[in-house]
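Box 3.1 A note on notation
Throughout this textbook, protein chains are presented in two layers. The first layer is the amino acid sequence; the second is a token string describing backbone geometry. Keep the layers aligned when reading.
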Amino acid sequence: MTINSSEGEILTIKEVAEYLKVTERTIYRLAAAKKIPAFKVGGTWRFRTADIDSWIAAQSEKAEASD
């Protein structure tokens, strides 16, 4: 799957799970715990590509800092 990294791109739980190569359940858990940037539309989680990419960069920095 190819993610178009345009600023306005909105992803679903399934798309974020595929993007990060984790299960949908993991994404639900992270979103509910506010550990990944997300918002709800009509009761379903949505994610901005730009927010997810920034979050990935921040996670990478944390991992490097703890080494």
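The chain has one domain: 10-65. DSSP finds three helices and three strands in the chain.
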